[in-house]
Amino acid sequence: MLLSRIVKSCMDIILPHGCAVCGVRMPCEAHGRFCDRCRFGISHLVPPFCRICGVEVFGVGVHNPLCGECLENPPPYSIARSVVRYEPQVQQLVQKLKYGSELSVIPGLSELISSYDMEEFADIDFIVVVPLHLRRLRRRGLNQAAVLARLFFPDRLKLIKSDWLIRTRNTVPQTELGRTARKRNLRGAFQVRATSDFQGAGVCLVDDVFTTGTTIKECSKVIMKSGADEVKVLTLARVSARHRGMHL
Ligand SMILES: [Zn+2]
Ligand SMILES: [Zn+2]
User: Fold this and answer.
1) How many whole angstroms from 127 Cα to the centroid of ligand 1?
2) What's the 2 CA to ligand 2 centre distance in angstroms?
3) Nearest-CA neighbor of 113 among 64, 169, 44?
4) Most exposed: 44, 50, 148, 236, by fewest CB within 10 Å?
């Protein structure tokens, strides 16, 4: 332990670390992985949240709110939570991890994630990730959701079953589509592997970004159909859109 701390201090002197987002060199005595400018651009989600989908809601005196969307169409997951808003600095971090397979962003991601209170995920039995199609996985070299799952659950690595959920169709990236087309694009795209065992389990589904929720809904549906008791969704970031909270 002491030795690793000494090695780390020496490395910091020889190789001062750069900001995880913009790469600017930071002074050796700097704490954390982000320069002041980038840190300022990273914002955590602010309560109150919809008690199901976790979207930030507004409304006077709203206690335990529910957003209109969840009220009209209850999703197949029991809760969805995210750590930060999907704003430019976080977008850069995610893009670096996703398309560049840059593992240098991991300490920065880890810093963001370690500040998150995991209390609502204390009782889960298994952790799965939104899968990439095998062809895309080979091209990218890693599934960013699997990397994030390891950062969210460093002391529960054995519960991570990254191959229990599979993507059977190589779909068009959701970011290129509108809301209705997103749903159509993903229909039947996911399956549970025959050797998986979701029966009666509390499952945490991990992904990088919650955009419209179409992907996680589709995955949650498949997991629930295979016998899971509940699915709780956890994403690093969320495209921020405030909704009016309803008191129910
Ligand atoms: Zn920076
Ligand atoms: Zn909601």
Assistant:
1) 32
2) 47
3) 44
4) 44
d(CA 94, CA 164): 24
The tens digit of pLDDT for each residue in 68-118 reads 899 999 999 999 999 999 999 999 999 988 886 667 788 899 999 998 999
Contact between 165 and 219 under an 8 Å Cβ cutoff? The reply is yes
Cα distance between residue 130 and residue 13, in whole Å: 39
The domain limits of the chain are 1-38, 41-246
Q: Are 82 and 236 in contact (CB under 8 A)?
A: yes
pLDDT at 15 over 60: no
Q: What is the four-CA torsion angle of 82, 88, 89, 93, rounded to 10 degrees?
A: 70
- Counting ligands in written order, which one lies closest to the CA of residue 105? 1
Cα 107 to ligand 2 centroid, rounded to whole Å: 31
Q: Which helix (H) or strand (E) holds 232?
A: strand 230-238
Mean predicted confidence (pLDDT) in 178-200 = 82
Calpha distance 220→215 (Å, rounded): 9
Residue 233 has pLDDT above 60, yes or no: yes
Residue given tokens 């209170």 in the structure block: 117
Residues 6+ apart with CB under 8 A from 119: none
Cα–Cα distance, 90 to 88 (Å, whole number): 6
What six digits make up the tokens of 108? 């920065």
Give the model confidence (pLDDT) of 80-90 as tens digits: 999 999 999 99
What is the fold of 41-246?
Rossmann fold (3.40.50)
Residues around ligand 2, an ion, CB closer than 5 A: 50, 52-53, 67, 70
pLDDT at 118: 95
